[in-house]
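Predict the assembly for these two chains.
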Amino acid sequence: GNSVTQMEGPVTLSEEAFLTINCTYTATGYPSLFWYVQYPGEGLQLLLKATKADDKGSNKGFEATYRKETTSFHLEKGSVQVSDSAVYFCALFNQGGSEKLVFGKGTKLTVNP
Amino acid sequence: DTAVSQTPKYLVTQMGNDKSIKCEQNLGHDTMYWYKQDSKKFLKIMFSYNNKELIINETVPNRFSPKSPDKAHLNLHINSLELGDSAVYFCASSPRGRQGVYGYTFGSGTRLTVV
């Protein structure tokens, strides 16, 4: 079946540090990959996405590249801010498969000033 | 205008009670979902409806009954609430056949606390 594995959190960084949150997936076929962000007390917001191999999704300084050879979609940001503190979820959707968005367990990021 | 709106935002109730959570979307999507987020932030799909038709039911206790009066609404009714039902429940919607392109749009959640 389809599954997503994210690095365990929590992750604590200082402002302006480099961020990487690892995400790998297992799926048949060619899933679409997503990163969602959940700020404290809020719902999930789509952060970025990639729909095919080698696509790079980017938004708000965050980037992730769809790597089919390593089945990965790692999230990166060059310089984090306090306002980036949130829980980040990697997810996949397999069109024509199970018809549901499958999430990783989430990684909590705390950025200190 | 809120794209996916859920009510109430908070719900505190006693064990054994029956409660409902409402969800409405104004995006013109034809597929809607309920997800449960536990205390460890893990998200698990419960139900999916496409244009009022149930298409996913993920081994959820039959105390949970979704109802979709039209494609813009998906409500969740819970009978005989138990302590373990305490969680945040998220509604979401997507255009069917294009989920891989657009993903899902989520509501802001309903925090249910059973005491």
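The two ends of chain A are 41 Å apart (CA to CA). Chain A has a mean pLDDT of 94.
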